[in-house]
Every structure is written in structure tokens, then in C-alpha cells.
Amino acid sequence: MRWEDARRSDNIEDRRGDDYADAGGGGGPMMGGAGHLGLGTMVVLGVIAYALGIDPRILIGGAEMLNNFRGGGQTVEQQAPRQQSTRQTGAPSDQIGQFVAAVVGMNEDVWSDVLPKQKNIKFTPATLVMFSGATRSACGAAQSAMGPFYCPIDQKIYLDTSFFRDMKQKFGGGGDFAYAYVISHEMGHHIENLLGILPKVQRAQQQAGSRAEANGLSVRVELMADCLAGVWAASANSKWRNIDPDDIQKAVATAQAIGDDRLQKSSRGYVVPDSFTHGSSAQRVQWLQRGMQSGQVDSCNTFSR
């Protein structure tokens, strides 16, 4: 994917290198058991979700699945981060910061055009927070073990870019467009929020008759975000002709690698479909490709299928 000439977004908050406390004093990511977040994180998310009427699984954007992706491990609780020493805003000067700012800029340019035209809704930018190890969010403590996530309370995307390294090393899902797909998936959750879908899903989950039914709604939210990432890719390529077939293959490989069935098989040795929160590999590829082929937001209505 060619991104070097893209406009850099100023809606970047760079918290990398800030000083944070952790229980072990090492400053590295605190991992929970495979597929589970630490109890402290879950309590914080649960309290916030109860107070604001938002389902915790939506707040963290599938943190449990991404914890599985990173491999899990012994549960270690992390204390709340210390106050940030510095918060730089605007496009960072290093290469990875420039890349992230370019992808966010391309998302902003596409959605500022697509959302009003297709849905008659004004696009309001989301800030992307780059951090290392841990940071604060309005949805509670953010840890690298959680993977990238969108917090609808502060309308910010949280990203520890070491996730990109893990994508490449653990599942062979690397490449600029694959990384852009991850960011655009989280931007897709922001679009869902602007469309009013996230609060509707939360209400439906509260009325769900079983955990499996509630999980099914989460899957629909995540697959829609995959599709919206595809809509962004289609529009971006139409504008700038910056995506080639090899890029698409890498993004598809990434979607396959982070399917619930693939992750569960890798971590547990077996698959439990009723526990899926993001969708199978085949579903994730299907909806990503649907968005790329149609370029239409309405094609991403996972709730009508």
C-alpha cells in the first residue's frame, strides 16, 4: 500500500514513552490468562459500562480475543497508570507514527465524504492514541495485551503499535495494508457509534436470553467493522489508486488469522462457536471483501442477515 503521499492527520495523541506504574515494576505488557483480561481491568470496565449503559465487550472492542492473539499467560494485575508525563498531539515524526497518521488521515478524508453522501451523517473525527505498554482511557486502563480497541466514551482509538509486530511474527499477517486494515477496523467501530448502532446493540444484549445470543450480537458488531474497513479501502483506492492485489491478499490473510475459530483452535485446541465474539475466519474475510467490493455502508448491515 502506498501511503507516503497521504495527508497526515493531526488527531494523533502520542503517549509512547510516558511513565507508568505496574505491579511488577518492569513496564512491559501485563497479560491475563488466555482469552481473559485481568480482574482489575474487567472491574473498571464493568463499572463504567453499568454507569453509562454500554456493554463492556463493546467498550474494549474484543480485548479478550486479542489477548488470545497475543498468546495469553499467567494473570498479572496492573495498577492504574501514573499521570502521563507528556502528551504530544499531531503527527509524530518517526516512521511508524507517520504511517499511523497517514492511515488515520486517509480514513478521515474518506469518511468525511462517504458518511454524509451515503448516510446523511456528518463525520466527526476520532483521535488515535499511540501508547507503549499501558495508558489510561475513558473506558478504563488500556494495556498492550488488549490489542487495539475503540472507546466510545471518549471516541478514541487506542493502539500499541507492537501489535503490528505480533501480527507478523505470530500469524504472518504483516504488511502496510494489513496494518491499515486493523486501524480502519477500529475506525469502523467509530462509524458504528456515529450511526447509533453501538447503543442499540447494548440494549439488545441486555435483553438477550443467553450469553450465546449476546455473543452473537458482538459478532455482528465486529463483522460490520470489518466490512466498514473494506468500504474505506474501496473508497481510498478509488481516490488514490494506492492498493494493489498483493495488499488485499495480506489483509485477507490477516482477517483469516484473527478469526475466533483460528484463535481458539490455536490456544485451546478446539473451537466453541457459541463463545465467538468476532466471527470465524471465513466470516471476517467475507465481510471485509463485501465492503471492498461494494464500497457501500448499507452493504455492511450484518444485523439483517
Notable features of this structure?
alpha/beta, 305 residues, 5-stranded mixed β-sheet
What is the secondary structure topology, with strand pairs?
Elements: E1 12-14, H1 39-52, H2 56-59, H3 63-70, E2 88-89, H4 95-119, E3 127-130, E4 134-137, E5 140-143, E6 149-151, E7 156-159, H5 162-171, H6 176-194, H7 197-206, H8 211-240, H9 245-257, H10 260-267, H11 281-294
Parallel strand pairs: 1-3, 3-7
Antiparallel strand pairs: 1-2, 4-5, 6-7
Structure description:
The chain is an alpha/beta fold. It has one domain. It contains eleven helices and seven strands. The chain has helices at residues 39-52, 56-59, 63-70, 95-119, 162-171, 176-194, 197-206, 211-240, 245-257, 260-267, 281-294, and strands at 12-14, 88-89, 127-130, 134-137, 140-143, 149-151, 156-159. The strands form two sheets. Strands 2-1-3-7-6 form a five-stranded mixed β-sheet, with helices on one face. It has a two-stranded antiparallel sheet with strand order 4-5. A hairpin with a 2-residue loop joins strand 4 and strand 5. Helix 7 packs antiparallel against helix 8 and helix 8 packs parallel to helix 11 (281-294). The longest helix has 30 residues, at 211-240. The protein is globular and about 50 Å long. Residues 20-85 have low confidence and may be disordered.
